Amino acid sequence: MLGAAFTPLDWLAVVHRELLLFSCLFFALGSLDEFAIDVLYLVGRLSGRIRTPVIDRQAVEGRDLSGPVAVIVPAWREEEVIGATMRHLLAAWPQKQVRLYVGCYANDPATIEAAARAARGRARARIVIHSGPGPTTKADCMNRVYRAIEEDERREDVRFRMVVIHDAEDMVDPAALPLFDAAIAKAELLQIPVLPSPQAPSRWVSGHYMDEFAEAHAKAMVVRNWLGAGIPSAGVGCAIARDRLAILDTRSGWRGPFDADSLTEDYELGLRVAEAGAKVAFLRVRGDDGRLVATRAFFPRRLETAVRQKTRWVCGIALQGWDRMGWSGGVIDGWMRLRDRRGPMAALVLFAAYLLLVLSAVLLVAQQLGLARSLALTPLIGTLLVANAISLVWRSAFRGIFTAREYGLEEGIRAVLRIPLGNFIAILAGRRAVVQYVASLRGTMLTWDKTEHRGHPSLVPGAPA
User: Would you tell me which CATH number, out of the four given (1.20.1250.20, 1.10.1710.10, 2.60.120.260, 3.90.550.10), belongs to the domain 54-330+454-459?
Assistant: First the structure.
């Protein structure tokens, strides 16, 4: 029996073994979940049901559109990047049917001034001023821009065919808009991949975004699209039919088509459109030059800003989203929502795993000194350890391959080395998200905790047009 004969270090060994069982079990469940996606992806690729079409960029870029298009860019304290974003967007999409709406706040004169400079002499650009003090939420800013779009439609007797959503730091792809224009006739919400741009000063923190998006938007999202599940919008590189926005505006009960009370209105937008019975689609296409048609942007360089950004994602999708959207839909949609909402649990399991590394080192030293006894592993734990080790190699290989496909072999190798850093960021973001969510339950208002942007990909020498 366990009793007084056990020293504190012996009890630590017991805790270590129980923690090991907990971590191994949940790692195994997560591995099975990812393995199912991997198998579906491989089946889809081998059968030809999942493929990446190749387009002639020269024939597509700059092509006339079927109708007028409004592009929404909400901005709060984006004076360092908004000008470059506007200039690049209007140059990449020269079609006369395009009108750019930039949403600013009255108490953010620096962003207004930068946007106004970029809009000078460009008739296709509009600056929309939110009268309320910022920041509110991104959705609230976009609702104000939507009202401006409605006003222009009434005044000019026009009707936009679709609305494209982007962030203030995005570098758009010249081929994206013509692709949206062709596909919007078959689906009411479209999403293209996001491709974080490499940043030499931050190969590790910003680089881990490259790894995650390279895999998620080449595998998980295309599988989701193939299975017919709801496609969450990424909030950038997203097009939605104008009529669908009008329906959301009239039926939602919100202060516009976007829910201003949500931290992740972009994620919810795609799922709500799918819930309404409308078709949504993920478009993954390559140009004949080998480049993916995608939205490129710089992601956070510093650990603190990366944690803040991912906190918003975890809190909005995993915690707030559970309350707001529930588990409607079929089995496939339920599975995908469960995957979307695993952030807090994944953070807990990762924390337990890294704590195990520390405890293992302490116990190893104690056992060598004869201060603690060694507890034998159960057959279940031994089996789970082997399975998880195999899964780790498998997962690392997939991560490296997908990253190397978009960024080259060197970054593919770095992708494997960046996995522990990505896990550490996930742990910190998960903890912060839970604290933030609990505070919101106590009445604290959630606001737009936006990421600071210090540069734009189009300003880097050699950046793609």
Answer: 3.90.550.10
